[in-house]
Amino acid sequence: MSDRIPRDSDNDYSEVMAKTRRDFAADKTSSKLDHIGHYSVDPATTAGNIENFIGVAQVPLGLIGPLRVNGEHASGDFYVPMATSEGTLIASYNRGARLLRDSGGVKVTVVDDAMQRAPVFVFNDAREARDFGLWVEQNVEEIAAQAETTTSSGKLRNIEQYAAARMRYLRFNFTTGDAAGQNMVGKATFIACEWIMKTYPGIQRYMLSGAMDTDKKHSQINTLHSRGKRVVAEVLIPGELLEKTMGVTAEVLFKARQINQVGSFMAGSSSTGAHAANGIAAVFIATGQDAANVAESSSSIIFADVDKAGNYYLSITLPSLIVATYGGGTGLPTQQECLDMLGCNGAGKVHKLAEIIGATVLAGEVSLMSAVLAGDWVTSHDALGRNR
């Protein structure tokens, strides 16, 4: 048998080819692939999502809720599907959802929305690069017109500029409708850059990405300027309810938050929260988001306060939540079912999904922070997190 993975140039997304590749993998690795080959998905529906399809990785899917969301796009009680293999995670988020619901729900706001591509242009010296920057400012409308010829939903909102050495970094900010938009803005920016190269003299060369768009890695520029959706989720929890449900007082939880802020600072963490990545990853996998975007999306800023009446205010800001309700993995059958559960399958639903995810993350934050202080963090994992 050849070492090359089998492919069919005419019809590679079929059960015949999936089985051929499973047999190939089983032979080459001496493995049994009984579970990988059991699925209800038509292989043809995976075209555009994966290559060399052999089957599915079945991740357990759980449910939390009802989670009450008081958003501008998501309003009401939601049952949130979360895909994970970490025991206690669903139980913890569900406990947090109950506390937030009993507190009146989570107020969630999408405060910014932009996806970037950041080309860099190279000149003979810094003065030429500076002059180019002035020209860009004067020609933003024409640059936008060129970029938008490639897309019906992407709109160039603005162009940030950054100077270094003889280079000018441009950070194109697009709104992208219901799509996450990385590929969309890449194509649009390419067309704009090609027009710039033909129109403006003296450019030595350019690169479509100078790495200031920070695809799939955290960056400080995202924390300050946003990437994807910038979402703020906040709640005011009655002190008595917090102590009754979580076994900790508002004062103790607030003091622990101050200590954690210092620890996060000393560690150089991209997040001052407890574990935003857990909730985001679980909802991302369930709803067909690009899982690698968790690297950016899980960056978070926690703020807490206690009022004179002893009520606990908690908020989380997600400055770079990258989500979609159209395109990519959102079109796969099981992921569409999960989006249907949230009422987020279809046009005009991306901000609704962002608000639900923001509320979900807040539920996980208050639950874990309370568990650590109440002493049931380890015991809950012992009880629910072992299967061997």
TrEMBL record:
Keyword Oxidoreductase (UniProt): yes
A Gene Ontology molecular function term of the record: hydroxymethylglutaryl-CoA reductase (NADPH) activity
Coiled coil residues, start to end: none
UniProt keyword annotation of Lipid metabolism present: no
GO biological process, alphabetically ordered: coenzyme A metabolic process; isoprenoid biosynthetic process
The protein's Enzyme Commission number: 1.1.1.34
Pfam families for the chain: HMG-CoA_red
Family: Belongs to the HMG-CoA reductase family.
Protein name: hydroxymethylglutaryl-CoA reductase (NADPH)
Organism: gamma proteobacterium HTCC2207
